[in-house]
Amino acid sequence: MRLIVQRVKNAKVEVDNKIVGQINGGYMVLVGVGSNDTEKEADYLAKKLINLRVFEDENGKMNLGLKDVNGELLLISQFTLYADCSGGNRPSFINAAKPDKANELYEYFCKKCAESVHVQKGVFGAHMEVTLQNSGPVTILLER
Fold this sequence. Notes:
The structure is a single chain. This protein is of the alpha/beta class. The protein has 2 helices and 8 strands. Strands 1, 2, 3, 6, 7 and 8 form a 6-stranded mixed beta sheet that branches. A two-stranded antiparallel ribbon has the order 4-5. Strand 6, helix 2 and strand 7 form a beta-alpha-beta unit. Helix 1 runs parallel beside helix 2. The longest helix is centred in the C-terminal third of the chain and has 16 residues.
């Protein structure tokens, strides 16, 4: 699995001009599922994401996590995180999980995260419009 984590002041995702997920501070996360991923990778990354400390403390150091700042998650499925452009200019997505498996693991990941913090999400497989106000900016790649 691959996660692109962006610390945000706010973020929302729309499908067909309707807001389907929205947060006021926390992380907007693009979630990619690889063909070999299992619940083991999802468990590891959910724990890593929830405990990631990239919010400033009283001394201006990135030392606080989501729970410390009452942050939320906006989780967006993103198979293009597995794009392979090594063979040319048109990406191959052969390393991305097939849609059924990817959706199942994405939903599992969302539920694991929701055990610890408030989670909003996009619509798997839909054309989504994502709007966010990045804070920092802070953008981190997590993978397993």
